[in-house]
Design brief:
heterodimer; A: Peroxisomal Thiolase, Chain A, domain 1; nine-stranded mixed beta sheet; two-stranded antiparallel ribbon; B: mainly beta; five-stranded antiparallel beta sheet; 40% strand; binds zinc ion
Chain lengths: 389, 134
């Protein structure tokens, strides 16, 4: 089985959640500088650059012009919010193939100050999107898309709104320790159920936050990682997958995580019991529920019972998740949550998470991202990360 | 309780034109493959199951079954609306709105029938309403 040599050596999350006074490329710059500093490197050391659809202008050309650097390798894989999780895998393979030595991945966005929810973007699809005429007239907001999955999950498996609410409760329990989190108040199941219905069965508190901000990551050649201040992290397993409407033969009961997760577990040789912490994409509570089933942490249809037992809460459950508060409470910059998922996993593996939510002696973590919409078409990317032996 | 919305005008791609023309006649057609026999939706210029270009437009009786739905709160002062996936043929589901209904009494598995409403510019849009209310 393939064994990646490159190491994840730098991570930085912008502390802002509201940045009306900064340009988009400025946010990309600030997170890039934050990540290279975290790794003990300089922007001039970067010779590989990865970005996705949130990057301004002509993507890498515009950003690298602004940075005034000329990397020898770029990758603009665009799978929505899962892009940055996939970029880590792509960067590691590019480095192992000798295409670059130090790769920078950035994400930034200002949907909060520009009043651009993911729905407003989804409902203004350009005419050349092949699905446009057959979806946009019906008002498929992003919550509505995910609500279609939630309603079907409830129908097939008896999942309840109370069970979904437990996912928000767990995220909020963690967010109360994150001074940068947009929502820092611990909420109850009752709080979630009494929040306004956005798209049945999803309530307002079943949805993630809309924030400005961003984050960046550095992946480097193993020999370079060895000499850096902080220990690098191994990338034991990676997986990527795409799922869509199958030309009308739609099955909303599972996500592409079923396929990306299997690849990552197979490649890593790690078992589910060995995962001590998981960053799970949480655009909505239902996203988490489906993913923990698809990734194999519980059987299909058993996610509701799993989360309602408090299993996602650090210090209490079997699968501590999103200990920064996740997208549900802390940050969902650019309406894309994959970057912050990787960053919190890095904190856990370095022992840099808040002491109240730090998993003791955390050695192996999983990161899972989705992008697009589980109700229509989406990408998934999974990473299994570990400390050096 | 109104579930009426204003429907945007579809751009209408060349390969899907017959679907929209049929809609204007009050008919639901499904692009169906003459080689493998399967239908698909949204309509494409090739069969997305076997990649044949030998396709025909098959008219259905317009009956379907709700696969999933959500009642969407559109915003203050705007009516709620029901977004759904309806199974319109064997292994073919379509995104749609359920109209002329009490949103709170809908259920997955419910039988529905195609109805059409005009967009602002006069193109018929495919919608569904509960069978028993017709
Ligand atoms: Zn065919």
């Amino acid at each position: 089985m393939e064994k990646l040599q490159a190491r994840l050596v730098g991570a930085y999350e912008h502390p802002t959640r509201f940045a009306p006074d900064k340009s988009l490329v400025q946010l990309h710059t600030e997170v890039a500088l934050g990540a290279v500093a975290d790794a003990g490197l300089s922007l001039s050391d970067v010779d590989g650059y990865f970005c996705a659809g949130d990057a301004p202008g002509l993507g890498p050309l515009s950003v690298l012009d602004y940075f005034n650097i000329t990397p020898r390798y770029v990758d603009t894989t665009e799978t929505g919010g899962s892009s940055y999780v996939a970029h880590v895998a792509h960067a590691a393979r590019a480095i192992d193939a000798g295409l670059c030595d130090i790769a920078l991945i950035t994400l930034a966005g200002k949907p909060r100050s520009e009043n651009k929810s993911a729905s407003s973007v989804a409902l203004a699809l350009p005419a050349d999107r092949p699905e446009r005429d057959f979806e946009v007239p019906y008002g498929p907001t992003v919550p509505a898309n995910y609500a279609l999955c939630a309603a079907r999950h409830m129908h097939e498996f008896g999942t309840t709104s109370e069970q979904l609410a437990w996912i928000k409760v767990a995220a909020s329990h963690h967010a109360q320790y994150n001074p940068h989190a947009m929502l820092q108040k611990a909420v109850t199941v009752e709080d979630v159920l009494s929040s306004p219905m956005v798209a049945s069965p999803l309530h307002r508190l079943d949805c993630c936050v809309i924030t400005d901000g961003g984050g960046a990551l550095i992946v480097a050649r193993k020999e370079i990682a060895r000499d850096l201040a902080k220990p690098g992290l191994r990338i034991l397993g990676t997986g990527e997958a795409i799922k869509h409407q199958s030309a009308g033969d739609i099955d909303l009961t599972f996500s592409a995580g079923k396929w990306s997760g299997k690849q990552a577990f197979d490649m890593s040789g790690v078992t589910h019991d060995q995962i001590q912490y998981a960053s799970i994409y949480d655009s909505f509570t239902i996203t988490v529920l489906m993913e923990i089933e698809d990734l194999g942490f519980c059987k299909p249809g058993h996610g509701g019972g799993f989360v309602a037992e408090g299993n996602l809460i650090s210090g209490r459950g079997k699968l501590p998740f999103n200990t920064d508060g996740g997208g549900l409470c802390s940050n969902h910059p650019a309406n894309r949550g994959g970057m912050t998922k990787v960053i919190e996993a890095v904190r856990q593996l370095r022992g840099e998470a808040h002491p109240a939510v730090q998993v003791p002696d955390c050695k192996i973590a999983l990161v899972h991202g989705t992008g697009g919409s589980l109700g229509t078409r989406h990408g998934a990317a999974t990473l299994i990360l570990a400390c050096e032996d | 309780m109104s579930t009426t919305r204003e429907y945007i005008h579809p751009e209408i791609s060349p390969e899907a034109r017959p679907f929209w023309d049929a809609a204007n006649e009050g008919k639901l057609v499904i692009h169906t493959c003459r080689d493998c026999g399967r239908g698909h939706h949204y309509p494409r210029a090739m069969c997305p199951h076997c990649y044949s270009a030998d396709l025909e437009w098959k008219e259905t009786d317009g009956h379907g079954e709700i696969y999933s739905f959500s009642v969407v709160t559109a915003g203050k002062d705007l009516p709620r609306y029901v977004i759904a996936y309806v199974e319109i043929a064997d292994r073919v589901k379509a995104m749609t709105n359920i109209v002329d209904c009490d949103p709170d009494s809908l259920r997955i598995g419910q039988r529905v029938k195609a109805v059409f409403r005009r967009s602002k510019t006069g193109q018929n849009i495919l919608l569904f309403s509960p069978l028993e209310s017709l």
